[in-house]
Amino acid sequence: MRRKSVCTSVLLAVTMLLSMFLFNSTVQAAGFEMEIGSVEGCKGETVIVPVSFKNVPAAGINNCDFTIKYDASIMKVLEDGIIPGPIARNASITFDKIVDPNSGIIKFLYCDETGLGNEAIKSDGVFVNIKFLIKQTAPIGFNRIRTVGVCTFGSTYLEAVPAGITEGNLNVIEKQGYKVSGYITPDLAMGDSSSALKSDFSVGVAGTGINTVTDENGFFQLYIENGITNCTLAITKDGFLSRNINGISLTSPNGFTEVSSVAAPIKMWIGDINNDGAINMKDIIEISKVFNFSKSDSGYSGKCDINKDGRINMADIVAIAKHFNRVPADYSI
Ligand SMILES: [Ca+2]
Ligand SMILES: [Ca+2]
């Protein structure tokens, strides 16, 4: 964590320094463009908005610095929802971002730290994919996704590269089809189900690309195209034993199916730290590697802090013990 923040500081400093030089000379690589994707989806769905570079100059894009603005009342960037694209080289070092979920701002930084052009962006393609959840309160219609402030792009030779910017949008649509909703909650020994633990369960319809995530109340809602009358929901979240809910019939007369309620939510078992489909000693070993670490320690692992209280200790082991030696098939018992 510390190393990453140091990296961010270094990237910021280098990018700002380069920007000062960049204004002194300009490469005439007419035609370089950055395009923010346009997507559509309905309330409760997740969508992926790509940000792509086109007509990248032969000298490559050595560094860039730009900010994207979206409507935070309509969309939410998912946790781990900013994924560097294939043209970002050695992204763990060269690529960084800062998200402000309250104001709907994402700042992107890229810098070839070799200084030799070895990690400059040389080809056209997707620079970053941004995964958004469309909020349940989102009204039907278009919402701009655009840049704000100065967007700086620099070549390997420290020349400014002028960029044409195409803004994108999210079109929130009314979707036809069956609606499936429900509530999910972690089944914890301490009975604590704080909102941090209820949100961000991924809920997908098996065999389709339909997917959403739970909100802070553990609520989810999906729309399934007419024609599918029966489905399986696949529920996953980092650190939890994955679960399938089979045989959901969608043929209720009003087209609306509730698979679980606030009073009787679908329960998920925590403790599959290594995501191998079982809660066992291997997971305890993962926790023991970071035992007694707290959030301020560089080795702290959010995944091992089962109850999300900022410390990795016996309480987390106890939380795992509740469903020790269980596999997904045990959920039906
Ligand atoms: Ca495991
Ligand atoms: Ca803990």
Structural topology:
Elements: H1 2-22, E1 33-36, E2 39-41, E3 46-54, E4 61-69, E5 75-84, H2 91-94, E6 95-100, E7 105-111, E8 125-134, E9 141-155, E10 164-166, E11 168-172, E12 178-186, H3 195-198, E13 202-205, E14 211-213, E15 219-224, E16 230-236, E17 239-240, E18 243-249, E19 256-258, E20 266-268, E21 270-272, H4 281-288, H5 314-321
Parallel strand pairs: 1-10, 2-11, 12-19, 12-20
Antiparallel strand pairs: 1-3, 3-8, 4-7, 4-9, 5-8, 6-7, 9-11, 12-15, 13-14, 13-16, 16-18, 17-21
Notable characteristics:
333 residues; mainly beta; Immunoglobulin-like; 2 domains; 5 helices; 38% strand; globular; binds calcium ion
Overall pLDDT confidence:
88
Helix content: 10-25%
**Shape-level CATH architecture of the largest domain:** Sandwich
Counted by DSSP, the helix tally is 5
Task: Report the CATH C-level class of the largest domain.
Answer: Mainly Beta
CATH topology of the largest domain: Immunoglobulin-like
Quaternary class: single chain
Give the strand order, joined by hyphens, for the main sheet. 2-11-9-4-7-6
Question: Could you list the spans in which at least 5 consecutive residues all have pLDDT below 50?
Answer: 20-29
What is the CA-CA span between the terminal residues? 40 Å
Order of helices and strands: HEEEEEHEEEEEEEHEEEEEEEEEHH
Tally the beta strands: 21
Query: Which structural category do the helix and sheet elements fall into?
Result: mainly beta
Strand portion, in percent? 35-45%
Q: Radius of gyration over alpha carbons?
A: 23 Å
- Overall geometry comes to globular
Tally of individual domains: 2
Identify the bound ligands. calcium ion
Largest sheet: 6 strands, mixed
